[in-house]
Design a protein that fits this description.
single chain, alpha/beta, about 65% helix
Length: about 425
């Protein structure tokens, strides 16, 4: 135990002092602060717009007294064949802040020039096509002008009402036929925009943390082999103890940094995100983060890291130069990437009981990347996660025993990089 503690202290302090660790921590904290400040800034601008709108409403007496008021938004309506009777009035009803004016087809080119210069100007041309009215909405771009879909719906409704009136229907029947039915979208699951987004973010952070700190183990081993520090460590500790000490040190560092960043993000959320702020009509909240979900997230992070750290440590021990670490880590990196994509795509899948979801849940390499999002959105039972954690833990024990043998066989090897077959032969001696 003393040997593991010695290696742990040496590796932990060495990693904390590195510029990469300090810079990555600062960058993550700054990004979180910026992301949390964006909703606050949006809310401030929304409040200013509301105040401006109230002021404009209060100052609308000038129009009543007969004074001219200039409207910035203009829409030219062209329907020379009167294909949609009442189309002009329908547009005026749905575009209260826009001056809808009659236009002519001869001036379409002039209208297009005006629209190209000013995004507040738009035009609607109604012409006959295949015996029915065809609606052509002209705007500068998709970010400006009138809402195209709303305009088309209003004109379609006006056209339908006119057709029904020509067939002799009374106004009450026409109103009943053309009025959209009320509806409500009821969700049986607990998935919402907030939980979905938070799950994806934590999944990506989990992959980054597991991959980054596992890579740190490999780099630490390779660096110490290059500087001959490993020879000194071998004298005072067994190779298996060195492996455990390094993995524990980087894992502790990762857990502290990862946990600190999460706590900082929660604090920024509480301080800077306005209460009731919504995205796509859903209020932002951290209701899915509680002691239950946090416990499983921490467990999957620790076990997922341990799984990949063992593999990365062995890869780092096979090289004699730091420059060869990336090529040595290629097989592990490929496994990690494939497992991440398997977990990610099964996470965003609409099905929760498919075969791929079950494979991603119980496969030890992919479960740390699949479970977080499903967990936060209530898509997994407790027994399923416990079974998945059990498989992951057993896999780590088996892999640790194999890794210790391979590590012992390769840690003092210098020269050409050992192949896996050669390491297995040395490990069995």
């Amino acid at each position: 135990m003393r040997q593991v503690k010695t290696v742990f202290q040496f590796t932990f302090l060495d990693a904390v002092r590195k510029k990469a660790f300090i810079l990555s921590t600062v960058i993550m904290l700054v990004l979180i602060l910026i992301l949390c400040l964006i909703p606050r800034i949006i809310s401030v601008f929304d409040d200013e717009q509301d105040s401006t709108a109230e002021y404009a409403e209060d100052s609308g007496d000038a129009a009543v007294s007969g004074e001219d008021t200039a409207e910035d938004a203009v829409c030219y309506y062209i329907d020379e064949e009167d294909l949609i009777p009442g189309g002009l009035a329908a547009l005026q009803n749905i575009l209260p802040g826009t001056a809808v004016k009659p236009g002519t087809a001869d001036q379409l080119d002039q209208y297009r020039e005006e629209i190209d210069e000013d995004g507040n100007i738009s035009a609607i041309e109604v012409r006959s096509q295949d015996g029915r009215p065809f609606i052509n909405v002209i705007c500068k771009d998709f970010m400006s002008g009138i809402p195209t879909g709303d305009a088309a719906d209003a004109l379609t409704k006006a056209y339908t009402q006119d057709l029904l009136a020509m067939q002799g229907m009374d106004e009450a029947t026409i109103a009943a036929v053309t009025t959209p039915l009320p509806y409500n979208a009821e969700m049986t699951g607990s998935l919402d925009v907030t939980g979905y987004t938070l799950g994806i973010i934590i999944t990506m952070l989990m992959f980054f943390a597991i991959y980054y700190y596992g890579y740190g183990v490999a780099m630490s081993v390779a660096t110490e082999k290059t500087s001959r520090v490993m020879e000194t460590l071998i004298v005072s500790a067994k190779p298996s103890r060195i492996l455990l000490g390094k993995c524990l040190a980087m894992g502790t560092l990762g857990l502290l940094q990862f946990g600190g960043i999460i706590l900082y993000a929660v604090l920024c959320f509480r301080l800077f995100i306005p209460e009731g702020f919504t995205i796509m009509g859903t209020a932002l909240s951290l209701s899915s983060i509680n002691l239950y979900t946090a416990s499983f997230l921490i467990a999957y992070f620790i076990l997922g890291y341990a799984l990949y750290a063992m593999l990365n440590a062995v890869c780092g021990a096979t090289v004699s130069k730091v420059e060869d670490v990336n090529s040595a880590l290629m097989p592990v990196s490929l496994i990690a990437m494939l497992s991440f994509y398997l977990g990610y795509f099964t996470t965003i899948s609409t099905s929760s009981n498919g075969m791929m979801q079950k494979i991603a849940l119980y496969l030890p390499f992919s479960s740390p990347f699949m479970v977080p999002s499903r967990l936060l959105n209530g898509g997994l039972e407790t027994w399923e996660m416990l079974a998945s954690l059990g498989i992951l833990a057993v896999s780590i024990v088996i892999l640790a025993l194999i890794s210790m043998k391979l590590y012992s066989a390769s840690v003092l090897h210098y020269g050409n990089r050992l192949k896996w077959r050669e390491m297995l032969k040395k490990g069995n001696r």
